[in-house]
Design goal:
Layout (H helix, E strand, L loop, with lengths): L2 H19 L2 H17 L3 H4 L1 H9 L17 H12 L2 H14 L3 H25 L2 E2 L5 E2 L2 H9 L2 H35 L3 H16 L2 H30 L4 H12 L11 H15 L6 H5 L7 H33 L19 H11 L4 H32 L4 H17 L10 H27 L1 H16 L5
Antiparallel strand pairs: 1-2
C-alpha cells in the first residue's frame, strides 16, 4: 500500500469520527448556546459592539503598563493573542474548504455562526476572568478548565476539556497551520515542504522561549499588519469585479436555503461545513480564546469580555467574508459555478489554501496569489504561537509547569510534520491536506463539548456579571 492509499484510509476513518462529533447534537449545542446567551444578554453583541471596539483599540488599553487591573498583558495584547490564534488558515484555507465541499451557501452559515458566536465568545471571557487564578510563576491562568472546576465543581469535566485542548493544539494550532503554509508556498514559489517546515519550526521555537510576553508583542505587530493588508487586497478585488458582486452575494443567500443545503442529513453537509469552518476560524464556543482573555489586565470581567467579543466580529464578519465573497465571485468568472442556480459546473473542486490562492491570482493577476501566500504565512505563524500558549496552559493545568518545556518541544515537532504531510509532484489528490483538516475538526468538536456545557450551566453567572458592570458604569464607578 503506497503513501497516498494509507493517507486516504486514515482520512476516511477520521472523517467518520468527525461526522459523529459534528453531527446534529454538536451543531444544536453550538448554535443553541450562542442563541441562549444572545437572548439572555438582550442582544448585547449588537448594541455594545461600538463600545467594545473602542475598548479594544483605544491607546490606553494598548499599554502593557496600564495598572487598571491585575493581569499579564493589556486588553489589546490579550485580543492580539486570541486573534493570532483565530485569524489564520481558517480565514484562507478554511473558508475555501467550506465553499468547495459545502457550496457557496456555507458562507452564509459561517456568518450566522459568527453572529451568535459573538455572545458565546463574550460569555467565555466573562467566566475566564472571573475564575482565573495566579500560578506558581505569578502569571494569570484561566479558561474553561478553571471555570468548569471552580464554577461547576466538575473536576473530571475540566480535565476532559484540558486533555482535548492539548490534543487539538497539535492539529488546529500546529500541523494544520504549517500544512497550509507548506502547501501554498510550494504551489506559489515551488519551495519544498521540508524547507518550509524547518524554517517555521526554528522561528516558532525562538519566540516560544519568551513566553506570553513575546507572543503578545509579536502578535501585536503581525496580526494588524497582515489583516489590514489582506482585507485591503480583497476589497480591491471586489471593486475591480463589482459587476459580479451582486450575483455572488445572491448565490450565497439562495444556496444557503436550497434543497442541497439539507442534503446528507438533518442539517446537511453545507450547514455542517459552514458551522465547522466558522468555529474553526473564530473559535467561538471552543474554549480556546478565553485562555488568552484570562491573562488581560482589566478592572472587570465584562470589560475584557467585550474586547474578546470583537475578535469574532473581526475574524469572521470582516476577514472571512472577504475570502468567501471573492471565492464565489472568482468561481463564477472562471465558469465553475452556475450564476443562476449556484451549482458547481465541474467536479473535484480544489480544497484548502490552493483554491484561495488560485482564485485571488485569477482575480488579481500577478499580485493576488502572492498576497494570499504572504498573508497565509504570517497568519498561520501567529496562530502557531497563540495555540502553543493555549496548549501549555492546559498542560500546566493537567500536569504542572514542569511539563511545559516537553510540550513545547513536541509542539514544534508537529509544525514540521504538518509541512511534510503535503504531497508534491505533478499530480496530487491533496489527501494529506484533507486528513490534517479532518483531524483538526474532530479535536475541535471534542474540546467544545465540555466548554459549551459549562457555558449553559453558568449562563446565570454571565448575566449577573454583565448586570454588575452595566450598573457600575451607570453609577460612574467604572468608565
Amino acid at each position: 500500500m503506497d503513501q497516498t492509499s494509507v493517507i486516504q484510509s486514515l482520512d476516511k476513518a477520521v472523517g467518520a469520527v468527525g461526522n459523529i462529533v459534528w453531527g446534529p447534537f454538536m451543531l444544536t449545542l453550538l448554535v443553541g448556546t450562542g442563541l441562549l446567551l444572545t437572548f439572555r444578554l438582550q442582544l448585547l453583541q449588537f448594541w455594545q459592539l461600538p463600545y467594545a471596539l473602542k475598548q479594544a483599540f483605544s491607546i490606553k488599553n494598548r499599554s502593557e503598563k496600564d495598572d487598571a487591573g491585575e493581569g499579564d498583558v493589556s486588553h489589546f495584547g490579550a485580543l492580539m493573542i486570541a486573534l493570532s490564534a483565530t485569524i489564520g488558515t481558517g480565514n484562507i484555507a478554511g473558508v475555501a474548504t467550506a465553499v468547495a465541499l459545502g457550496g457557496p451557501g456555507a458562507v452564509f452559515w459561517m456568518w450566522m455562526t459568527a453572529l451568535v458566536g459573538m455572545a458565546t465568545k463574550y460569555g467565555e471571557a466573562v467566566l475566564a476572568v472571573k475564575y482565573r487564578q495566579i500560578n506558581s510563576k505569578n502569571e494569570m491562568s484561566g479558561g474553561p478548565m478553571y471555570y468548569i472546576e471552580k464554577g461547576l465543581g466538575l473536576k473530571w469535566l475540566a480535565v476532559l476539556f484540558a486533555l482535548f485542548a492539548v490534543l487539538a493544539s497539535f492539529g488546529i494550532g500546529s500541523s494544520v497551520q504549517s500544512n497550509s503554509v507548506a502547501d501554498v508556498v510550494y504551489g506559489t514559489f515551488h519551495i519544498q515542504p521540508l524547507v518550509t517546515g524547518i524554517v517555521l519550526t526554528v522561528l516558532t521555537g525562538v519566540v516560544l522561549l519568551g513566553g506570553v510576553q513575546w507572543i503578545s508583542k509579536v502578535s501585536s505587530v503581525i496580526v494588524p499588519l497582515m489583516a489590514v493588508g489582506y482585507v485591503a487586497g480583497g476589497i480591491l478585488i471586489l471593486l475591480m469585479n463589482v459587476e459580479v458582486l451582486g450575483t455572488a452575494v445572491s448565490i450565497i443567500f439562495t444556496d444557503a436555503f436550497s434543497a442541497r443545503a439539507v442534503a446528507g442529513g438533518t442539517f446537511g453537509s453545507m450547514v455542517r461545513f459552514g458551522v465547522a469552518r466558522g468555529v474553526f476560524s473564530n473559535e467561538a464556543g471552543m474554549g480556546s480564546a478565553p485562555i488568552a482573555a484570562a491573562a488581560a489586565k482589566t478592572d472587570h470581567s465584562v470589560r475584557q469580555a467585550l474586547v474578546s467579543m470583537t475578535g469574532t466580529f473581526l475574524d469572521t464578519i470582516i476577514v472571512c467574508s472577504i475570502t468567501g465573497i471573492v471565492l464565489v465571485m472568482g468561481l463564477i468568472k472562471m465558469n465553475m459555478i452556475d450564476p443562476i442556480s449556484g451549482q458547481y459546473l465541474v467536479q473535484d473542486i480544489t480544497v484548502g489554501a490552493k483554491l484561495t490562492t488560485d482564485t485571488f491570482e485569477y482575480m488579481l493577476p500577478g499580485f493576488g496569489g502572492i498576497l494570499v501566500t504572504v498573508g497565509l504565512i504570517f497568519f498561520a505563524y501567529s496562530t502557531v504561537l497563540g495555540w502553543c500558549y493555549y496548549g501549555e496552559k492546559c498542560v500546566s493545568y493537567l500536569m504542572g509547569d514542569r511539563f511545559i518545556a516537553p510540550y513545547r518541544f513536541l509542539y514544534t515537532i508537529t509544525v514540521l510534520l504538518g509541512c511534510l504531510a503535503v504531497q508534491t509532484g505533478v499530480k496530487t489528490d491533496q489527501a494529506g491536506v484533507k486528513l490534517v483538516w479532518n483531524i483538526a475538526d474532530t479535536f475541535n468538536g471534542l474540546m467544545a463539548i465540555p466548554n459549551l456545557i459549562a457555558l449553559l450551566l453558568l449562563s446565570s453567572v454571565i448575566v449577573a456579571e454583565t448586570q454588575d458592570f452595566m450598573d457600575k458604569r451607570k453609577r460612574g464607578i467604572l468608565k
